Every structure is written in structure tokens, then in C-alpha cells.
Amino acid sequence: MEWKDIIPVLAGGLVILVVALVVKPALVGEPAVATPGPVLPAYVPPAPLPAATPFPEVGAAHTRTFRWTAIDGGVHTTEVRVPEALFLAHRETPRFADRLAWGRYALAEEDRPILADLARRIAPADGNPEEEYFGLMNLIFFVQQIPYEPDNSTDSYIEGALPRHARPVKDGIEYPKYPAETLVDGKGDCEDSAILLAGLLDALGYDTVLLLYPDHMALGIRMDGFHPYYAKYTPKYFDYGGKHYYYVEGTTYYGGKVSADSPVLRGKPFPIGDTEDASFGSVKSGTPEIVPLHSIPAPAEYRIRPARLPAGGA
Hints:
Helix content: 25-40%
Order of helices and strands: HEEHHHHEEHHEEEEHE
Number of domains: 1
Shape: globular
Strand content: 15-25%
Strand order of the largest sheet: 7-8-6-5-9
């Protein structure tokens, strides 16, 4: 038999072998080839978890328009939208009594998208240090021009009534607001402005601390080599952890309206480090307690005394 006769025979045998080992088992659901050892399951990556959206953009929301004057004297209009579900959730959250924990309000994750969007619209990043500085000043001026209203005034709340978690204190009422609450109410006192400004600056990546005075709260912003060429004042800063934190006033409109029938507010924006015209004597001459936004209050040092059991046993 010649090779030309053998090749068709071999090809036919190969076809029969393929049919027997591959095609038939595939049709009847049998394994094609038995392999020794355990068969490892194929890895199937888990489906990605959907992003948590407890406060969706759609639905009921509070929209407030702010009108404010920038560093160049131009008047700007800025609109802020806060989901109603977020606002109500904050209103139902009890407040920390310890002021050392108030930085947590500025860092609330739920408020972060709102603050980041607002901060970038007022102070867009363009890589130019001077432009970024002016944007930073505009952001500070924006917060400073939110009307001042104390916690014990019902005018400080959009509902026209004190929130149920407002806490009575020696001098009145204490109710530190989340940033979103201040934006919805459109008013607040010194700690509300400091917390809002801290949240806005933190969203832009600035290192900030709270400055606690006996009768006031302001903000400190870390800046290295800060020497404003136009300043007619000596910028005030405080050392903390080997860093310089410059004083930033959160609200300057303490006096309210110029007259009963005038919507114009008294006061002026305060640039970074300016305390010469501060309304509080403690700000001019005192040294504040410096509290990082991420501060966790430590227990005070105290003496433990053993408890005495009553006579006769437990």
C-alpha cells in the first residue's frame, strides 16, 4: 500500500477519534476527558456595589440663592441646593456638648459633595497661585457675608422655631449646625460660620483648625510664608504642631441691619490674619484653644477614689 492510500485512512481515523472524544460527550453532557485531581472553580468577579445615594439629587430639596460681594467689589450670585432628606436627617441628629468635637460637623461625608461643588464654583483651581489666593479670599468673604443670627433666635432657623436638639446652656441656647443646615437656614452664629468655612476649605484640601475663645469661635488656616503685599496689618497666626495657622474670621456682620427698613448689613469682610478690628476683645489679645477638625477629645487627668461598700455588705 502506498502513502497516498494510507493518508485518507489516517484522516478518517482522526475524524472518528474527535467525534468519539469531543463531539459526543459535548452533546450528551459528559466530560470530554477525565483529568486527574480536583477541578478548581472558575473565578467570577463580584458585581460592583452601587454607590450609596441616601440623599439623591432628584426629589424635594431646599434651594437658596446667596448674593455676596467678592474681593474685587463685584457682586455675585450663587445658588446652593440641599436635598430635603439630608437637611431633615441633620435636624434630627443630637448635638455634641463638647466643643472639641464640633469639627466633625465640618467633615460630615453627606455634606461633602455640596461643599466641594460650592467651593469649586467660588474658588476654581487654575494653577495660578495668585488667582487661587484671590479665590480663597472670595470663599472666605462669601461665608462672612452670611447674616449673623444667634442660636437662641428663632430667626436662625428656616422653620421659625428652635430645633428639638437645641441645648440650653448658661448663657442661652447652643446648637452647632452642620454646613448644609447653615446653607439652608441662610443664617448662623460664629461657630456655624466657622464650621461651614472649615468644611469648604477642607473640600479644597486646605489644612484648617478651629480656634476656640471663651466667647467666640473662628478658624485657623495653615499657610507657609504668608506675606500679603497689600496688607496694612500684621497677620496673626498661631503655632500648632510645628505649623503656622493664620486667623480667619467666619462672620463679621454682628450688628445686623443698618436701620429697621434697610436690608444693608453693617460690617466688612476680614482678610486672612486680620484681627485689628475684631469685635471681641478675646480675639485681639487672647490665645485660643486650637482644635484640629479630626480631634478626638482625650479624658482629663483626675484622681480615682475607691468606692466604699455600705455597712453590712453589698
